[in-house]
Amino acid sequence: MFSVKALLGLCALLPSVLAQAAVFGQCGGQGFTGPTTCASGSTCVVQNAFFSQCLPSASAPPTTTVAAPPPSGAAPTDLSAIPASTLHQITNFGTNPNNVGMFVYKPKKLQAKPPLIVASHFCTGTAQIYFQGSKFAQLAETFGYLVIFPSSPHPDLCWDVSSAQTLMHNGGSDSLSIANVARFALANWGVDPNRVFAVGTSSGAMMTSVLAGAYPDIFKAGIVDSGVAFGCFASSGPLDTFNEVCASGNVIMTGQQWAQKVFNAFPGFTGTRPKIQTWHGTADTTVFPQNFFEQIKQWTTVFGLPSTPVSNVSEPFLPQGYSNATFGPQFQAILAQGVGHTVPLFEQQYLQFFGIA
Ligand SMILES: *[C@@H]1O[C@H](CO)[C@@H](O)[C@H](O)[C@H]1NC(C)=O
Ligand SMILES: *[C@@H]1O[C@H](CO)[C@@H](O)[C@H](O)[C@H]1NC(C)=O
């Protein structure tokens, strides 16, 4: 079955001169045989070994460089006090139980009521590493949103996605710190409450699930790159415990059991829950792909969606072997054949899911 997207993709190609990839279309990557030149106004940018994409020429990397060490200070209530186009550390934004490092990236030009994206790094990562290794900041210069890059305070530089506190609304630990910086941004910086989003890779993907489950009142959408179901890492060990049983795909539950973990995280919450898009590789031997299917059980039950996708298609703008399973407007699950830990970032697609691009 053709998706509307796929048809639109084909139509978009027809009027163009032969062999030009459309804006946001694929223009290179291992095994890619299509056009490698881009439609006018866009340039082919290597995203990873598998995927190059035609990006609007305006989204060139910001010319400013990161100050090292970054300037730091108490979070100003006036956004204009934050220097533009640099990674800027803030403190005193609210309760911060474990002293999570908090960095904000403000582009030169912000939307009037800017969206906010919280981007959480993987284990052994830092705010700076995720900032430099992703295009979230660069694309903020094009689309005018704010980015918060939290930085783990724990020995392995993983996130606490296991403690009872972090898994509970206002329960404490790392998730509360991230919720509090979002609350600060909402209260002081004019951030659009309908456009607060979370994204993360690996441990940061697990944090994204935690934020979606425990703070559905703050976050409106989440992108989970190579993570696990909410609550799967639960453990009474040290705060950044790596839960091997979950990671190896051996925590198997029914959709109802998984959903109950989400409901228990914020009893009495009756609002709209954040929509979720999860990405996983079939060759992931760090966070085994069973976790992809456990997430599907969890979120389809939470949202009351069918347990089988309404469509499952390859997309013209994703590498071959990627399937996009849609269960409803609130939940999509992208499985990447032969891809290990982690699935490379597809920032442009995430921004579309968030309704920013
Ligand atoms: C979508 O289709 C692919 C390829 O047939 C399959 O491997 C994958 O499991 C499907 N996704 C879901 C969520 O059923
Ligand atoms: C998956 O399909 C849905 C429904 O067509 C679409 O809205 C979404 O953009 C697609 N996601 C990706 C990552 O291709």
TrEMBL record:
<feature type="signal peptide">
    <location>
        <begin position="1"/>
        <end position="19"/>
    </location>
</feature>
<dbReference type="GO" id="GO:0052689">
    <property type="term" value="F:carboxylic ester hydrolase activity"/>
</dbReference>
<dbReference type="InterPro" id="IPR035971">
    <property type="entry name" value="CBD_sf"/>
</dbReference>
<keyword id="KW-0719">Serine esterase</keyword>
<dbReference type="InterPro" id="IPR010126">
    <property type="entry name" value="Esterase_phb"/>
</dbReference>
<keyword id="KW-0624">Polysaccharide degradation</keyword>
<keyword id="KW-0119">Carbohydrate metabolism</keyword>
<feature type="domain" description="CBM1">
    <location>
        <begin position="19"/>
        <end position="55"/>
    </location>
</feature>
<dbReference type="InterPro" id="IPR050955">
    <property type="entry name" value="Plant_Biomass_Hydrol_Est"/>
</dbReference>
<dbReference type="GO" id="GO:0005576">
    <property type="term" value="C:extracellular region"/>
</dbReference>
<dbReference type="InterPro" id="IPR029058">
    <property type="entry name" value="AB_hydrolase_fold"/>
</dbReference>
<dbReference type="GO" id="GO:0045493">
    <property type="term" value="P:xylan catabolic process"/>
</dbReference>
<comment type="function">
    <text>Esterase involved in the hydrolysis of xylan, a major structural heterogeneous polysaccharide found in plant biomass representing the second most abundant polysaccharide in the biosphere, after cellulose.</text>
</comment>
<keyword id="KW-0732">Signal</keyword>
<keyword id="KW-0964">Secreted</keyword>
<comment type="similarity">
    <text>Belongs to the carbohydrate esterase 1 (CE1) family.</text>
</comment>
<dbReference type="Pfam" id="PF10503">
    <property type="entry name" value="Esterase_PHB"/>
</dbReference>
<dbReference type="Pfam" id="PF00734">
    <property type="entry name" value="CBM_1"/>
</dbReference>
<keyword id="KW-0378">Hydrolase</keyword>
<dbReference type="InterPro" id="IPR000254">
    <property type="entry name" value="CBD"/>
</dbReference>
<protein>
    <recommendedName>
        <fullName>Carboxylic ester hydrolase</fullName>
        <ecNumber>3.1.1.-</ecNumber>
    </recommendedName>
</protein>
<dbReference type="GO" id="GO:0030248">
    <property type="term" value="F:cellulose binding"/>
</dbReference>
